[in-house]
Amino acid sequence: MELLDAYAKVAGREVVEHLHQLSEPLKGMKVVHVNSTREGGGVAELLRKIVPMMEALGLDVKWEVIQGTNRFFQCTKGFHNSLQGKTVVLPESAIEEYERINGENAEQLRDTLREADFVFIHDPQPAALIRYIEDRKGKWIWRCHIDCSRPYRPVWKYLKGIVAGYDASIFSLAEFAQPLPHPQYIIAPSIDPLSEKNMDLPQEEIDHVFDEFNLKRELPLILQVSRFDRFKDPLGVIQAFREARKMVPLQLVLAGGGATDDPEGDIVLEEVRRAANGDPDIHILVLPPDAHRTINALQRAADIVLQKSIKEGFGLTVSEAMWKGKPVIGGDTGGIRLQVIDHYTGFRVKTPEGAALRIRYLLHAEEKRLEMGERARRFVKENFLVTRHLREYLALMIALFHGLKDRIDLNSPDESS
Amino acid sequence: MAESNQRFHVRDCALVRMSTGYRALTLREFKECIERVPSSSIYHHFWGRFLQPQFDEPEYNNDFAAWAYHGLHEKALAEKLSVIDPTEFEDIEALRQELIERIEDYLFEYEYVPWARAEDQFHFVKSQLVVLDTGMSISRPEDLQEAIPNMSLGSIFYHFIDARRRTVEKTNDFSAWLLGLGPEYEPLASAFDKLDPYFSSLKALRTMIHQACISFFSSRGE
């Protein structure tokens, strides 16, 4: 209960009371979340909070992580890239490895998965578990966190054959939903305001990042936090920085964490280092997966935060920065469009030149920057905190139990069960 | 001070959005989709949007009008769609017909079919609404002053927005309750009816409802 009290202080007492009421018909139900990593990436961060919150609401929740080989993760990285539209030819042996690993994990998790009332399978890595679990008791939901608005068809065709077997799927945006023979729910991701990455920090800790990373206090700080991934366009950020610096003195921090299921990260990191070419005002920080407080401090220390992605599932770093009162210059794509309301909570851009222009503008108009930052924080509070995310999961679970009706009245004698 | 056996039962709701699979790139496709989508999709794009992320002051009061402007860049059409008051229609089918007719008129007047870029296409969604009882009830109108700020945004949506579709009078639940208690509460019911919910977030709407209560009861010296 203490956990939920803490959220009530940040998100509002009525918000948490609403969660209690909504979870009432689900109390005691067995819920299992399955993904492929406990550290790194938005999915693990989400589960680290959603799971204990569901427990605090009286649900019986487990979080399982599948184990895989390097070849397995190369294959699933291929899935990931191809869902985001890249042409990826996966050899038969890669698919065999994918299925073999899912089969092995299914053996380990068989009893847990078979008995669960609700099974949430996150992303493609564990999606094939469903093929190996017969006589499933509960509802199986495939949660896709990836922008698959224009997937590479041959790979999607294969994955569709697997996920079609689920009772429902969840996509982050309506644009990402694909034709499937079951209900497709739309639930935007969220940030956790109490996590180390988003909690309030003492000013000394924020100031400390200048010393720790050899940053200059007198120069405006531009930041992008993201994995070293081509879809995040780190090279475009460097180009934007160089364009803007022609007019305004600046420093740039590109801070990337690693995730155990991302074998391509090292290659992109090397490309970024080459592009930076030893520039003393470009700081490339490779942070460990648990450097949440450091990222928090960097976001708070920054004057402007960028998320110049070319493709983006959602881009949780945008809401993170907005929660800290920073306007965000974001790529005009995917979930960034939902968070960055152009000219209100930041700017959406399509090119490095556009990003450079907005950097210059925001540094020039300090009052506007602060005003936008304040709006951004309020927007996140009302729309993108984990409490809202959990509310939608609970509503979805109730809805799945009651079929495809437009309106489910839990106090109606026909519905209460 | 009114005492009544008619208690106001505070309910709450949560909404989940679902894809309909319908999407439109041109105004003609948009019209064809409106003809075919489930009625819950029309409902969602007029009402359900209130429970979804939106900026404090939306420019247009329904998603169709917003897309006409932001996706198609057809300001005149956006204006024509924006003035549609969904409460004026008997049911969703009548509302759907009105949308279709306005778009057909627009298409008839113009020599070309407006289109959006691929990334700006309109995705029709629908929603499922889960309604629950909060266990909270109000016996006296005076108690609204304390109760309203403590209501969740889901309760505000259910009693103020959703009620317009649900009730015969096409009004909000608070006004309907107050009118049932006697003529002395008519001014407050009338003040609620005058609140235009379409240009506010639910949070702002909750504040406006609360302020109307405070004004009414303070004018009565309560």
Fold and architecture overview:
By secondary structure, chain A is of the alpha/beta class. Chain A is about 45% helix and about 15% strand. In chain A, the strands form two sheets. Chain A has a six-stranded parallel β-sheet, with helices on both faces. A six-stranded parallel β-sheet of chain A has the order 9-8-7-10-11-12, sandwiched between helices. In chain A, helix 11 (about 315-325) links the parallel strand 10 (about 305) and strand 11. In chain A, helix 11 packs across helix 14. With about 220 residues, chain B is α+β, with helices and mostly antiparallel strands. Chain B is about 50% helix and about 15% strand. Chain B has ten helices and two strands; from the N terminus they run βαααααβααααα. Chain B has helices spanning about 25-35, 40-45, 65-70, 75-80, 90-110, 145-150, 155-165, 175-180, 185-195, 200-220; strands spanning about 10-25, 120-140. A two-stranded antiparallel ribbon of chain B has the order 1-2. Chain B is elongated and about 60 Å long. The model of chain B has no long low-confidence stretch (mean pLDDT about 90). The chains are: A alpha/beta (about 425), B alpha+beta (about 220). The interface of A and B includes residues 22, 187, 338, 379 and 382 of A.
